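Entry 14. Two folds queued back to back today. First construct below, sequence then structure tokens.
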Amino acid sequence: MGYVDPMSETTTPAAPEAEPESGPGASPGAAPAKKRTVFAWSLWDWGSASFQAVVTTFVFTVYLTSAAFGPEHETSAALGTALLIAGIVVALFAPVIGRLTDAAGRRKTWLGINTAITVACTALMVFVAPAQQFLVFGLVLLAIGNIAFEFASVTYNAMLNQVSTNANVGKISGFGWGMGYLGGIVLLALILVGFVFPDPGWFGVPHADGWNIRTAMVLAALWFGVFAVPVFFAVPEIKPADPAGTRPRGILSAYGDIFRSIGGLWKTTRKTLYFLIASAVFRDGLAGVFTFGGVVAALSFGFEPSTVIVFAIAANVVAGLATIGAGLVEDRVGAKAVMILSLVLMVICGLVLFILAPLGAWVFWTFGLVLCIFVGPVQSASRTFLARLIPPGREGEIFGLYAMTGRAVSFLAPAAFTAAVALGGATIYGILGLVLVLLAGLLLLVPLRGK
């Protein structure tokens, strides 16, 4: 991808430290990570773009809320309900999944299971015909796919400390996240020329009965499935975190351990708990940008579905390059500095978008793309900041809490967006709701200081 030497040929685990910006980057005793191992790990991010960019953001959800499935307000409400249910399930079970995989030493097993479920749900979307009676079927596939994808992400994020050290965790996290954006570029471009332009596209699939979008879901499933494979061969499995006889025996036992873990965080490393809360808020704002970005582009700036995909490609280009670039400097300036600067500039861009919206589509093209520059760096730096706080052997558990806290407040962005639209009487006002959530997360993050 033109990215030269993102990490040295081998890395040496750093000595554990206790501070947020200088904590452990790799589990003690872990084998040095080679470049090919890191690259194989990052390919999962590359493949996951098929679900994040194509299914949940720019293609399938836009298709599922089109007029063929019912009135706009009904399909949008149904979509929000499905995602809310999925979010509740993730909030309840993500920490348990993380805890059990850490204890049993079976990260790759559960990563494989949840990745396979996500791929299967994506492939089955080919059967969602453009008719109102298929709406529920499409929403069920979307919800199950979201749940499995979030569970897989918990395990995948926990592997970060297996392929990085304290000295380069920011660089490697940024490289992986940037690979996700770059993968989204390539896949969206293939879908655009292969299924959207012209009719039929390069692959000869007609637009009638939504076959172009439905077939694109099969390509998205294959994309994720193929590029997810290398991580299972390149990254070694972890050893069980607990000695035999002390592992959680089931879900209830795991919940007990999690509550004790939260109590322990409160007593000993309260900063970690504060960061989980702050990041949950601003990450929900980021999720709102992804969820409602296409809707705002279509309803407030007059973008056609094909134009939304073109914008998505451009957005992934700038986001991917910015994320990789931010990762190169993050290990020097600190993850918190990257997060704060990015959130401040996102808030500014959101306000400019709202103020200048009457001037036309060029406003969204300009300031929407500028805003996208800062989304990836915030996500990557957030993952890095937390990775440096986690004691070795508890990565799955803490990243499970990371997912849980994010889902616990997942109502914020949709609620703020909906309330702003209702009060303002137009979709464009929803931008103010998203800006408010991002600002709240920023204000929670600012007081959190490392020594």
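Second construct, same run, same settings:
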Amino acid sequence: MKAAILGDLFITNEVLQKALEKAFEGSGVQFEYVYQTDEWPVKPVMKTDEVSEFVGDENEVCEVVGDVELILTHTAPITQKVLAAAEKLKVVGAARGGPVNINWKACTERGIPVLYAPGRNSGAVAEFTMGLMLAQSRNITRSHMSMMVEKRWRGDLVTWEVVGKELNSSVIGLVGLGAIGAKVARITQAFGARVLVYDPYVSTEKIKETGAEQVNLETLLKEADFISLHARYTKETRGMIGEKEINLMKPTAYLINTARGEIVDHVALYKALKENRLAGAALDVFEAEPPPDDSPLYHLDNVTVTSHLASASIQAAEIGARVLAEGIYNYICRQETPKFCVNPDYIQHKN
């Protein structure tokens, strides 16, 4: 069986191949491989009208997939043109939580399931979220930058007006309670925090199981000391944290975003931060990545920013590859309907 391994600099060809061979161990299936590597995350992701959050050239991908039956990738563009070139393709998958770099509709029309790996980075993002909360609220970022860049000792960061609250006396507001949000809920409760959750797609029972309290968005924004975003980016969530929502937050509150930049109106956020209507923000994602050189972000002192790092860990890469490979094995060898399949209606078009 011929497989195209289209890795990048995070989930490498070696990681993908190792996971595939581990999943098929003892099955008797022998693989022949073709490879390609794109330059994510050193090269920023791109977006077209067809696919998004991809890196690489579809024409170059077409050159290697001509007679493959499997495609395993992370960020390569799997477009209609690529699919047309892969005439023998049986299954395609991305080792990521949302395979937005794959044209699902074109795959469905060919009867090809699109597999993915939901929750593969939930542990990594949850831990990183905690790091951002602490870095911003306890002035770790401010002190580090002052000492390393300016060689300045900031005694003023220990004054009453500047010091932050401990998590054990804070209210944490989680917007979204998927795999990541649920882990953040458990971790913050271990610190002793009270946790509020707004997620209209999660049952009251599930929220109670995490030990959190279900509230509406307005209540969460008004009461939380930390508002942490964990909602998936959709048409409904685009700009859901705008000027109106920011004005509901406490002036002592912090906004944490490790979800997607488009969920926040950054113009309104930067204005509130500049006017000190919020204590601060910690952002791992932005409307444009990287932000433009003239972004007002670079003139704010009360922000911790990172370059979309939250999901990056060795475990996240290995889990994503393993979940994807196991799904492919179950589909090919056990002839099971894929558990993590973004286009289950592919079956209606399968020959």
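Quick look at the second one. Residues 122-305 form a domain with the Rossmann fold fold (CATH 3.40.50.720). The two ends are 19 Å apart (CA to CA).
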